[in-house]
Amino acid sequence: MKELSSAEIRSMFLKFFESKGHSIEPSKSLVPVDDPTLLWINSGVATLKKYFDGSVVPNNRRITNAQKSIRTNDIENVGHTARHHTLFEMMGNFSIGDYFKEDAIPWAWELLTSPEWYAMDPEKLYITVYPEDTEAKEIWLKTGVPASHIFDVADNFWDIGQGPSGPDSEIFYDRGEEFLDIPADDPENYPGGENERYLEIWNIVFSQFNHTPENTYEELPHKNIDTGMGLERVVSVFQNAKTNFETDLFMPIIKKAEELGDGVKYGDSPITDISFKVIADHARAVTFAISDSALPSNEGRGYVIRRLLRRAVLHGRKLGINGAFLTQLVPVVGHIMESYYPEVLANAEYIESVVLAEEKRFNETLSDGLKMLNDVIANVKSSDSDVIAGKVAFKLYDTYGFPYELTEEYADDEGLKVDRAGFDAEMQAQRERARAARSDAKSMGVQNPLLTDLHTESKYVGWTTEIVEDAQLADIIVDNELADTVRTGQTADVIFTQTPFYAEMGGQVADRGQILTLAGEVVAEVTDVQKAPNGQHIHSLNVLADMKKGEHYQLVVDHKFHELVSKNHTATHMLDQALRNILGGHTSQAGSLVTPDYLRFDFSYNGAVPAEKLDEIEALINEKIAEALPISWIETDIESAKKLGAVAVFTEKYGEKVRVVSIGDFNAEFDGGTHANNTSELGLFKIVSESGIGAGIRRIEAVTANVAFKLTKEHENQLVQIANAVKAPQLKDAPEKVLALQAQIKELERQVTSLEAKIANSAAANIFNDIKTLGTHSAIISQVEVSGMEQLRAIADQWKENASSDVLVLIAKTGEDKVNLIVAMSKPAIATGIKSGDLIKAIAPLVGGNGGGRPDLAQAGGSNPAGIADALAAATSWLNEH
């Protein structure tokens, strides 16, 4: 076996399959695109779902990739086991209805054993197969694997529910007897068993069935290959590492952490080794996640980042690392991964700024969490119990980021235990809430052979024309079946040999329009256009007259609709560029919607965009509109496009040729949409709103052209109305007049407050003289005329200062249907067992309200002034009874 670095192992895997005709798919963002079923990209196949379910046919049916992934379902195991990670890389080769077992198996063996490639010793490799998959077993034997190295394992069947499924073969590497962690005669001592000697390094899934909604398994019309080789695992084999952590993927991070601590070294003890592993793993995950535009927050994937970062900080403290330190690990991660992920180092400064802010925030929170934990320990020790409740442990974990094991460690030091079952129950409840919050709308679906097998030639010509004079109707689909005719009043999906209709893609809505006979008679309305798996534009029609396959028609796009959409699409490119120019290059597109009426642009950014920055963005775009920049496009290869400075948008899947749209020298992007011809056509760009829509994701909505002018005119009219209302001589004087009115109002409010205080004092002087004896208590119970709760509290303060009685109950009608109540009690009264909160809960419902508070003071609001007399009477009765 060769001595290889992690970068060499990854590169060799991809080159091997490239030599077998595979296209190398780049590693996609960890943040899923258009897949609500996933919080993170969690496998090599996760970004290829659209190919496997047949919704898109790839340019090359052979694909290979090394995909960064995150899994967070068992974070607690990281550091405690040899191979648990949150961030990992999965290398794979995939066949989308092309080759199958007879090629996949020999190629796997060739890569692993050939001297030209990995050069592993064949004697150290073992295979497991599904017992019923005799075909795979025979191919392994023909490939040269001895029967003694092949094991039947009943679990070797890959199935995630509805969608593609099938048997699989796992490949294990024998690391030698020195790695055996169980007795030699243990039943688990075999490849595939629970042991450390035989390490699984590759899984090859033979995806040959559709798991149907009816829970049956039917042969796929196109069988697939889906494989996964964990880079971290296979690197540990090549580098003869005891665990994944003693490899070049992790050790530089661990060494840096050693430098930052108080002299503790990796290998000193199993306890501190756990902390080093946690820090190394979490530093990688946090760095990559933030590089891919995810940001810390209290929900979703932002919560995962926050949790990982805080867990790393806590383990840093165990190593004597105080203060912010994860920022110093970011460039270390970047250098390790630079050969395949250069963007991490390129974004290092931005990543460090996010990490630093989060570390500082947690260090402030940490002291509160430790205080709570110490209080909990003190309370438990003073009670009859010696167990910290699971709910309390979970709150420490969930609110303050304390891992369970840290709480357990603190408790153990004090001779206490933690209710693990209760903690696990809370954790499970949270996971169920998270799962329930994610839709399964776009889980991997069942292949639709009708569309997948449809290879009709169809050309899109909408870049240069909105009318096709003569196009043949090539296919008609009615109720998911091919038809020769569609009748008046039906709906249908059709494909023409050529079309000017843009299909919905990249956030841009599809064109609308009409289908006409060559004689000019309208026969159908085009309501939507989507791309078929093989790239044809499928037109959804409302049919107004019979149409037949093979006949010729005119296709006419709605010009006004198309023009407005095109202008707004150009505006999204200009907005994207303006955001990068003004907010920084780390902002990246996270979604968009382009309609004729408005545009919506989602982007990554940490915090709300300041108003002055929005003004700058809007001004820059309007400046470029005024410059009348020409808009042009070319078709070229990807590398040439990158040399032109074109920006790739995450939502697009690019083939060998790409279309680059340039807006003068201001912006160049990979793009498949339609655009204006010149920025001057946009007329005006106006931001309507800026808001947050998720963790670290902001949304700008904006309008252009006539819609923007109309909105501006509406704003102008509103300003004129304001100017007239405040009697401003000119529109420019309105702000000063409004400020003067605000100052006047503030002064009047001050005077009203002063008068209300005097009224309250006067009312207090009267009611304090009306003291009743109710039961064993002296009480003042009265309705007063004041404007609100503030005045009631002022009277209560006077009552307390004067010690006027044991109990105070005041009720005021403060609006047409509004009531305020306040109850106060002296310490002697409370000592007898009565509380303000209990009394107010008894009387508030009578005025249509509810409330509560402390034993000495409680307040409430209500909506039924007619019940005031009843409430006063109830207060009297309550005190007589208590």
From TrEMBL:
Alphabetical UniProt keywords: Aminoacyl-tRNA synthetase, ATP-binding, Coiled coil, Cytoplasm, Ligase, Nucleotide-binding, Protein biosynthesis, RNA-binding, tRNA-binding
Enzyme Commission number(s) of this protein: 6.1.1.7
GO biological process, one term: alanyl-tRNA aminoacylation
Location(s) in or outside the cell: Cytoplasm
GO CC term (a single one): cytosol
Pfam families: DHHA1, tRNA-synt_2c, tRNA_SAD
Example GO molecular function: aminoacyl-tRNA deacylase activity
Matching PROSITE patterns: AA_TRNA_LIGASE_II_ALA
Main location (coarse class): cytoplasm
Catalytic activity reported: tRNA(Ala) + L-alanine + ATP = L-alanyl-tRNA(Ala) + AMP + diphosphate
Keyword Metal-binding among UniProt keywords: no
Coiled coil: 731-765
CDD domains assigned to the protein according to its UniProt record, in alphabetical order: AlaRS_core
Domain Alanyl-transfer RNA synthetases family profile stretches: 4-714
Domain of life: Bacteria
Domain notes: Consists of three domains; the N-terminal catalytic domain, the editing domain and the C-terminal C-Ala domain. The editing domain removes incorrectly charged amino acids, while the C-Ala domain, along with tRNA(Ala), serves as a bridge to cooperatively bring together the editing and aminoacylation centers thus stimulating deacylation of misacylated tRNAs.
Family: Belongs to the class-II aminoacyl-tRNA synthetase family.
Function: Catalyzes the attachment of alanine to tRNA(Ala) in a two-step reaction: alanine is first activated by ATP to form Ala-AMP and then transferred to the acceptor end of tRNA(Ala). Also edits incorrectly charged Ser-tRNA(Ala) and Gly-tRNA(Ala) via its editing domain.
Name the record gives this protein: Alanine--tRNA ligase
Phylogenetic lineage: Bacteria, Bacillati, Bacillota, Bacilli, Lactobacillales
